[in-house]
Write a structure and sequence with these properties.
By secondary structure, the chain is an alpha/beta fold. Helix content is about 25%, strand content about 20%. The strands form three sheets. Strands 5-4-3-7-8 form a five-stranded mixed beta sheet.
């Protein structure tokens, strides 16, 4: 079951590709926390990576932290291994945290179903937006509806999120 709007962010403590372990409590000072269930192999994720980088760059100084979490079963997709994650993060120039959920417990606690699947929390760590990044994964220039960016702007401005839920489009999470 996907987290309901207004729900508190589930706690986590996961290893990152930068060699650091990150816990939810480590990000307490951030005004907005965007958790994106992600992976290396999914073409939807690959199409969105530049936009994820741009969102962190655009809103990071205002208090946003993006966290990408890879929960996929590496037995099914070896290219989603932790070592491969490190390589991809470096090659793509990720400016956000990229964490590994080996046990898949974090994905289960969020109710994540797809890659990418977005969970945006406000400063109180209440779920304010869930769904997709925007309405066109294929072509960033053809996007007409920037739901995630709009939701981030609303949170950082202290406004209620206008569009709080959309349908996440992407690959299914590969469960063990």
């Amino acid at each position: 079951m996907i987290l309901e709007l207004g729900a508190t962010a589930p706690d986590f403590k996961l290893p990152g590709v930068d060699g650091k372990t990150v816990a939810l409590a480590d990000l307490a000072e951030k005004k907005a926390l965007c958790v994106i269930f992600s992976c290396n192999h999914c073409p939807y994720v690959q199409a969105y990576e530049a936009r994820m980088i741009e969102l962190q760059q655009r809103f990071g100084a205002q208090g946003l932290q993006i966290i990408a979490i890879n929960s996929n079963d590496v037995a099914a997709y070896a290219e989603d291994s932790f070592d491969a994650m490190k390589v991809r993060a470096k090659e793509q120039g990720f400016n956000f945290l990229y964490l590994r959920d080996e046990e898949q417990s974090v994905a289960l606690s969020f109710g994540a179903q797809r890659t990418p699947h977005i969970f945006l929390f406000d400063a109180a760590r209440r779920l304010a937006y869930v769904g997709r990044i925007d309405d066109n994964y294929k072509d960033a220039k053809a996007v007409k509806s920037h739901e995630l960016a709009d939701a981030i702007e609303d949170i950082l401005a202290g406004r209620p999120v206008k569009v709080a839920e959309t349908f996440a489009v992407g690959c299914s999470i590969k469960w063990k």
